[in-house]
Design goal:
With 295 residues, the chain is α/β, with parallel strands linked by helices. The chain is built from twelve helices and ten strands. The radius of gyration is 18 Å and the shape is globular.
Length: 295
């Protein structure tokens, strides 16, 4: 049996930038905030961390810093996906050398691989590392979705731990759960689907909202783990406006803007990301006020 990498809420942490590169001091402060508020794992250099806009040296510096700063208190999961299989292998091997507890590997984007291509892609990466791999299915950003039957084939590999599911297709997630063995873990990739996916056997969420509300996202999954889905449903609904606001523009524009408004030194978004529109900026401000979050 494979052991879950984590259960609960993992923060898909933003990357603070300065004019010199990655602001490691600010990153350390964000990590401390997460650990002090019950976050169960850290995902570094993912979509929310703007990894696609970072150089390889910046990625390795950031992953290595997170591993050292967290110091084994919770798992550190490094985003290492690419639309090039060879590149994904290189990045996965680098993160493994840096001590990441697991790898988050998004489906190849733009290429629009077939299911056979996805299978070969992940088989190649899995054969190149021993670190557990979390697949990442987010068709809204990549243009391709992993089929439940492909999950079933990949679940046979010893270091394929499970999937971050952000397809929004609860029917496909149910089929995946039925086709795959119990030790193939499913985590929600959408904050507002945390409770439904946990009700279908999911183990938690890899969360954007947790950057700002780590304790609340941790509590949300904890209620599900305690089989108190009535209370979890109430909290999910209470968090809905906030979750929606964090996606009023493309992630991570809203969440990084929210952190900056709250006084965190996260720096600028890297091009082609840009600040939110004036209308959305006001919406983010109003939602922060609604949830009692002020500088």
């Amino acid at each position: 049996m494979k052991h879950p990498i984590f259960t609960g809420s993992a923060a898909a942490i933003v990357t603070p930038f300065s004019e010199e590169g990655v602001n490691l001091t600010a990153l350390g402060e964000l990590l401390d905030f997460q650990l002090e508020n019950g976050t169960d794992a850290i995902v570094v250099c993912g979509t929310t961390g703007e990894a696609s806009a970072m150089t390889e040296s910046e990625r390795q510096e950031t992953i290595g810093f997170c591993v050292r700063h967290v110091g084994g208190r919770v798992p550190v999961i490094a985003g290492t996906g690419s639309n090039s299989t060879a590149r994904a292998v290189e990045q996965s091997q680098a993160a493994e050398r840096l001590g990441a507890d697991a790898l988050l590997v998004v489906t190849p984007y733009y290429n629009k691989a077939t299911q056979a291509g996805l299978l070969r892609h992940y088989q190649t990466i899995a054969a190149a590392v021993s670190t557990p791999i979390i697949l990442y299915n987010v068709p809204s950003r990549t243009g391709v979705s992993i089929a439940p039957e492909t999950y079933a084939a990949l679940s046979e590999l010893s270091n394929i731990a499970g999937v971050k599911e952000a397809s929004g297709n609860l029917g496909a997630i149910q089929r995946t759960r039925n086709l795959c063995p119990p030790d193939f873990c499913i985590w929600s990739g959408n904050d507002d689907e945390t409770v439904p996916i946990c009700a279908l056997g999911g183990l938690g969420v890899i969360s954007v909202a947790a950057n700002v509300l780590p304790a609340e996202m941790h509590r949300l999954v904890r209620l599900c783990q305690q089989n108190d889905f009535a209370a979890a449903g109430v909290l999910q609904l209470q968090l809905k406006d906030f979750c929606d606001a964090m996606f009023c523009e493309v992630n991570p524009i809203p969440v990084k803007t929210a952190l900056a408004l709250l006084g965190w030194k996260v720096g600028e978004l890297r091009s082609p990301m840009c600040p939110p529109s004036p209308e959305h900026l006001e919406h983010i401000k109003s939602v922060l006020t609604q949830y009692g979050l002020t500088v």
